[in-house]
Amino acid sequence: MAATGDSMASTSTNVDGTDNKIEKITFSQLGVIDVLCEACQQLKWKTPSKIQQEAIPVALAGNDVIGLAETGSGKTGAFALPILQALLASPQRLFALILTPTRELAFQISEQFEALGTTIGVKCAVVVGGIDMMTQSLMLAKKPHVIIATPGRLVDHLENTKGFSLRSLKYLVMDEADRILNMDFEQEVDKILKVIPRERKTYLYSATMTKKVAKLQRASLQNPVKVEVSTKYQTVEKLQQHYIFIPVKFKDVYLVYILNELAGNSFMIFCSTCVNTMRVALMLRNLGLTAVPLHGQMSQAKRLGALNKFKSKNRSILIATDVASRGLDIPHVDVVINFDIPSHSKDYIHRVGRTARAGRAGKAITFVTQYDVELYQRIEHLIGKQLPLYNTEEQEVMLLMERVTEAQRYAKMEMSELSNRKKRQKDEDEDTEESSGVRKKFKKKRKY
Fold first, then answer.
1. CATH-assigned architecture of domain 239-416
2. What residue ranges do the domains of the chain occupy?
3. Which of 295, 348, 355, 364 has the fewest Cβ atoms surrounding its Cβ within 10 A?
C-alpha cells in the first residue's frame, strides 16, 4: 500500500503496534491554512492520511488530480480542503460541484464539507433523487457555494430549473468515478461536462482505474497529476477475513448462528437484491434481533432514517444491498457478512472496506454455497490470498433450525402483506389519476 512518489515523512508502525519516531506530517505542512487546520482538529483528524499527503499539495499547486485510493482512505478530505482553501481566497457562489454515485454518499460528503467549513460559513446543497424537485430548486436559487449531486437529478435541474446554471463553476469533483460510470451515468456526465466551463479545476477520485475512467480522464482533465496509494486491489491488514462453505438451504440458520456467536458487535450484512434484504431483516426481527434494511427501493427519508438508526447505535445490524458498499463512513462496524456473494469481485473490496476503518480491527465472513464457488475463487484471485475457513459447530447450528424456520415463515407472510399493500396503493393511485383526468375533460366540455 505504499504511496507512489511518497516524498513526505510519516509515522511508520511496527508489527507490535509501536510507532517509529519519524516526524509526523501535519496539515499545516501540506500547505493548508490555519483556519482549516483548526477545523481538521475539531473533526479529530490528527494527521493527514496517505491520499491526503499525496493529493493536497498537488491540488493546492493548482493541478488537476486523479486520485486512486482504497475505500475509507480519507478521499473526501483530500478534495474538500483544497476547494475550501480556494473558496476562501476568492469567495463565489456556485463555486464547486461534487458528483457522487449514491444519495447516501452525497449527504455524507455534504456533512464533511459543512463540518470543515463551519467557521467560514460554507453553504452546501445536496441534489439527489427521491426528494421534491421544487424544494431543491429553492435551495439552488439561494446559490450555495458547493453542490453535491447525483448526475441524474443534477441534469434534471440543469434542463428544467429556470435560472439555474453552472457557467461560473470553478471546481468539479467526480468521487467514486468508476461507480458513477458503472451505474450507466455516462450520458448524464457528458451533458454536465458540456454546460460547465472548460477553464476549471477537476479532481477525479476512483478506487479503480477502469477503461471508462481513463476515457473520462482524457475528456475532462487538463495535464492531471496522478496520485495513487494502492497499487493493487487490497484489503486492510487489520481485517480478519474468512469464508464459510454451506448448502444454500441452510444460509439463514448459519447467519443466525454467527450473529449469536458474535453478539455484542455491530454487523453489516450484504444481500444481492432489495427483496432478500427485506426478507432477511424481517426474519431477524422475528427472532428478536435489532435489524434495519437499506436498499434502493426505499424512499430517501427511510434510507436516511435506517442509516441514522445504525450510526447512532440504536440498531446493531444493518442489512443492505451494494447501495451501502461504497464510501459510507460508519465508524463502528465490527463485522461484515457477505450473505450473498458479490457478482463483481471488486465489490468485495468495497463491502469489506466498511469495517477495519481508520486503523481499527474488523472481521469479514463470506457465505459460499455450492453455486458460488467460481465467484469466490475470483475474489481470492483478486485479493491475492486464500482465506481461512470460519469454524462452526454443525450440531449447534442445527439446534436453531426450528426457530429459524418459524421466523422465515412469518417473514414470508409479512413480505406477502407488504406486496399486497403496495399493489392496493398503486391501484388507488391509478384510480385517482383516472378520475382526475375525467374531471378535467368534463370541465373542458362545460366551457364550450
1. 3-Layer(aba) Sandwich (3.40)
2. 12-228, 239-416
3. 295
